[in-house]
Automatic annotation (TrEMBL):
This is D-alanine aminotransferase. GO terms for molecular function: D-alanine-2-oxoglutarate aminotransferase activity; pyridoxal phosphate binding. It is an enzyme of class 2 (transferase). NCBIfam families: D_amino_aminoT. One of its GO terms (biological process) is amino acid biosynthetic process. Homodimer. It comes from Liquorilactobacillus mali KCTC 3596 = DSM 20444. Belongs to the class-IV pyridoxal-phosphate-dependent aminotransferase family. GO terms for cellular component: cytosol. PANTHER family: AMINO-ACID AMINOTRANSFERASE, D-ALANINE AMINOTRANSFERASE. Its cofactor is pyridoxal 5'-phosphate. It catalyses: D-alanine + 2-oxoglutarate = D-glutamate + pyruvate. Keywords: Aminotransferase, Pyridoxal phosphate, Transferase. Transmembrane segments: none annotated.
């Protein structure tokens, strides 16, 4: 298997990561996960824009330009002969030795890019059947808009849900739904789409950008305002969105079915239109 390491495509087992790499020691770095459809990266520019913004927020100098990253990832997709898949890339701040919390001075560390690409296929069955979920208190930090490598909050939330027998965790902070463990969260209430507004409490999803466009083209109203848990009995449909799972119906919350416990019609319509947009 080939991977991208810094600016080279190499065999995976030749990659060397230093034990004092800050991603390894502090989770000090960023990542992106994007879909490949028909051997092409989907919404690469939007993913790059987010990475670039996050890099500025954590004061990390990306060691590549947009064009260089795109060209190298395209090469990797070609070398690995991927048709339908997922690109995962991460950028560590680099190696600082000896270990020290303080950010290294600019120019004194070399950020480290790694990326791999795998084949994945759309999980048609799950997209029809939907996911069950439970509410978990959102205990993450207050910079959820940064796609940080430090995902322990998300990991432990999902684990709590899975240990209780659910597929996903719906995160709630101060009585309001924020997002799911690895996706943005949407509700249909009174025929309108509702999702948490962008800001520091959620990741501004790339799938969310596309769904806004699709909803607009369908004449569906999107209200970007957090939904309080107290509105749960008014929820007609619920779904989660991310690049990998696309539009995933949430059919059960805390043991209670959402509506009739089946994928709702607006969710199905958005799923179909989203898939159409990837062709
Ligand atoms: C916490 C969280 N929110 C939202 C998303 C959706 O992001 P995107 O649509 O860019 O994949 C993700 C994706 O991994 C995520 O981890």
């Amino acid at each position: 298997m080939h991977v991208l390491w810094k600016d080279k495509i190499v065999e995976r087992d030749t990659v060397k990561i230093d034990i004092e790499d800050r991603a390894y020691q502090y989770g000090d770095g960023l990542y992106e996960a994007m879909r490949v459809y028909n051997s092409k990266m989907y919404m690469f520019d939007e993913h790059f824009d987010r990475l670039d913004r996050c890099a500025k927020e954590i004061r990390l100098d990306l060691p590549f330009t947009r064009a260089e990253l795109k060209a190298n990832l395209e090469k990797l997709i070609a070398v690995e002969s991927i048709k339908e898949g997922e690109v995962y890339l991460q950028v560590s701040r680099g190696v600082k030795s000896p270990r020290d919390h303080h950010l290294p001075l600019p120019g004194t560390v070399e950020p480290v890019l790694t990326a791999n690409v795998i084949t994945i296929e759309r999980d048609v069955e799950a997209q029809e059947k939907g996911h069950t979920s439970c509410i978990v208190q959102d205990q993450r930090w207050l910079h959820c808009n940064i796609k940080s490598l430090s995902l322990l909050g998300n990991v432990l939330s999902l684990n709590e849900a899975v240990e209780k027998g659910y597929d996903d965790a719906l995160l709630v902070r101060d009585g309001y739904f924020t997002e799911a463990s690895a996706s943005n969260l949407w509700f249909v209430i009174d025929g309108k789409l509702r999702t948490h507004e962008d800001g520091n409490l959620v990741l501004p999803g790339i799938t969310k950008i596309k769904l806004r466009e699709i909803a607009k083209s369908l004449g569906l109203e999107v209200v970007e305002k957090a939904v309080p848990v107290t509105m749960l009995d008014q929820v007609e449909e619920c779904f989660a969105s991310n690049s990998v799972h696309e539009v995933m119906p949430i059919v059960e919350i805390d043991g209670k079915p959402v509506r009739d416990g089946k994928r709702g019609p607006i969710t199905k319509l958005l799923q179909d239109k989203y898939i159409e947009a990837t062709l």
